Amino acid sequence: MASLQRQKWKPFMVLFIMPAAVIYLVFLLLPIVDSLRLSFYSGTGFIPDKFVGFDNYVKLFTQFPFKDRFWNAFKNNIEFFLIVTVVQNFFGFLIAFLVTRKIPGSNFFRKISFLPTTLSVIVVGFLFKLILNPSWGIFNKILSGIGLSCLAKPWLGIPSTALPVLAIVVSWQFMGESVLFYTAGIDAIPEDTLEAARIDGANPIQELFHIIVPAIMPIIGIVTILIFIGDFTQFDIVYAMATTQANPAFSTDLFGSLFYRATFSTPVRGGWGMGMGAAVSGIMFILVFSAVLIWLYFFKIKRGDEE
Amino acid sequence: MIKSKAKKNITTAVLLSLLIIYALTIIYPLFLMFITSLKTTREIFTNPFGLPEKFNLSGYVKLLTISHYLKYFKNSLIVSFVSLAIVMVSSSTASYILAKYNIRGRGFLYLFFVAGLIIPIRLGTISIMRMMIGINLNNHLMSVIILSTAVGIPFGVFILTDFIKMIPEELSNAARIDGCSEPGIFRIVILPLLRPALAAVAIVNFIPIWNDFWFPLVLLKDDSVRTVPLATALLFGQYSTDYGLVFAVLSMASIPVITIYLIFSKQFVKGLSSGALKG
Residue A146: which domain range? Predict the structure, then answer.
């Protein structure tokens, strides 16, 4: 590339790039920067106008009731992320491994796996809320039907089960994305490589651990970082299954729902004003940004060094 | 030899049954949603698992009478189509420059665009809301259209730049010799070849745009500007005990995306897979 001569910018080039660049810059990038700025302001009106430095963040970390809600959402979000990551990576890879074997109908399974991912999170959340609710309660009826009635319970009404249930519903919905990514990774392994291994006498298990797993390592990174970004800004599933109050007893509260309540709710329902809301989104930004840096370091730069 | 063949058949049978179990966990909840929407409220409770005795559309009829559902549907269509159109035009022109001209700052510009693939726009919500109020687009479909466009552009540039790079330079040079201008080359040579890539960009972006709930919730207040996901949430909240209606609401919201996905799944998988491999 370096050997090619640099071209000069011409007016039509500016014209061609401008529309995309301006829309993306003005409505996506700049608002995020501006929201970070607002996190250093406070005020009673709609527009925070008093500069308070790091006060909002200090309040968030140390003052009642802010710190309670904040650390609770922090803990919940990590638990939520860990469950989704484990479930989606493990089953996503397993299903991808199965559909890439020579199995009748594997195209059908590939296609079906993505179906829930195309739906709105709101729809999926409401659907499972109905399936799990105690009055209609298809899920509890199924449990009783297979002799496990001892396990039947109001899944979304108990603090200890509500959050894992939400995480599993999200995993169910976005499993298709992991399956698709892992399938793409396995499909991209050249047939010669597998053939050579077979000639050398590798059995399917050795093939799995010595060829397929190393080849899909970068995909684990992509799947996990996408889950991280999605989960640490997740709001819709909490809204649908546990309301913006993150019932029961804030046990399903994530950063996304905390951010929504803090910013848009009335003080009685958990509103903290725009400045504090901006501080919550500021923390979300820092978390997502750090995760992306860690991902780039381990999966991009390191890999680049080896090559 | 016979033994190993038998062993192979057993392996296939085991793998296949695992996949069938997985497929059932996917299909059954969705199937349940559709058949329940066709039952009477009494049947929903007395016969929750079975098929409806006869197809009963009263949930759907009620949905259309108590709400302006067709209006919500039209709003969602407008948001999706207008924003997809702007995404396709603006990101194909930008990608053309990034792919074909070795201009100063092109590496930076490409990174600038694709960074948007992993930046959650939600984190700018407070500032976006102030801006929308400032330019009087609050409570107007245009606000959601513009935001959906901004979210769609990074994926558009990501897919199209790569695709245009693969178009042989000889084609452009031949047009140049015929006296074609540079913008003309884009229109006459490049654009017609872009169709499969544009299809992938459109379908991959369509799903999150159609399903978006966050910005409609935050920005759209009036009944007349509601989109399907927002209406779904509000109707669900209001009529949560009317099961027949609620299942009709959920089914109505799912049918369009499921249909579109089943028709275009090939473009869809191609579009997303290339993203996975390039990472």
Answer: 48-306
Residue A273 is assigned to a structural domain of this protein:
yes
Shortest Cα distance, chain B CAs vs residue A302, angstroms: 14
- What local confidence, expressed as pLDDT, does residue A305 receive? 46
pLDDT for A302 equals 59
Whether residue A259 is contained in a domain is answered as yes
Question: What SS3 class is residue A51?
Answer: strand
Cβ B258–A119 below 8 Å, yes or no?
Answer: yes
Grade residue A3 by pLDDT with cuts at 50, 70 and 90.
very low
CB within 8 Å: A20 and B153: yes
B229 with A284: Cβ contact below 8 A: no
pLDDT, residue A306, reads 43
- Non-local (6+) Cβ contacts of A58 within 8 A are none
Among B7, B11, B19, the strongest candidate for a mutation testing the A interface, having the largest count of A CBs within 10 A, is: B19
Q: Per-domain residue ranges for chain B?
A: 2-37, 58-278
Residue A38 lies in a domain: no
CA distance A71 to chain B (A): 19
Q: Burial of B16 by CB count in 10 Å (0-12 exposed, 13-18 middle, 19+ buried)?
A: middle
| CATH assignment at residue A264 | 1.10.3720.10
Give me the residues of A, 83-142, that contact B with CB < 8 A. 91, 94-95, 98-99, 101-106, 108-123, 126-128, 130-131, 136, 138, 141
B30-53 pLDDT, tens digit each = 999 999 999 998 899 888 888 998
Q: Which amino acid appears at position B132 of this protein?
A: M
**Residue A252, min C-alpha distance to chain B (Å):** 18
pTM for this model (two decimals): 0.94
In a domain, A6, yes or no: no
The whole-angstrom distance between B114's CA and the closest CA on chain A is 11
Pick from A22, A15, A13, A39: nearest CA to A274: A39
Q: Find chain A residues with C-beta within 8 A of B184's C-beta.
A: none
**B2-38 residue pLDDT tens:** 667 788 888 889 999 999 999 999 999 999 999 999 9
Fold (topology level) of B58-278: MetI-like fold (1.10.3720)
- Could you give the number of structural domains in chain A? 1
Closest CA to B233 of A123, A257, A266, A237: A123
Return the H-helix or E-strand segment holding A70.
Answer: helix A66-99
Q: Which residues of A touch B273 (CB under 8 A)?
A: 180-181, 183-184, 187
Q: Is A50 part of the contact surface with chain B (CB cutoff 8 Å)?
A: no
- The per-residue pLDDT for range B198-257, each reduced to its tens digit, is 999 999 999 999 999 999 999 999 999 999 999 999 999 999 889 999 999 999 999 999
* Cβ(A235)–Cβ(A255) below 8 Å: no
Picking from A28, A35, A256, the nearest residue to B116 by CB comes out as: A28
Residue A307 has a pLDDT of: 36
Burial readout A218-255 (b: 16 or more C-beta within 10 A, e: otherwise)? bbbbbbbbbbbbbbbbbbbbbbbbbebbbbbebbbbbb
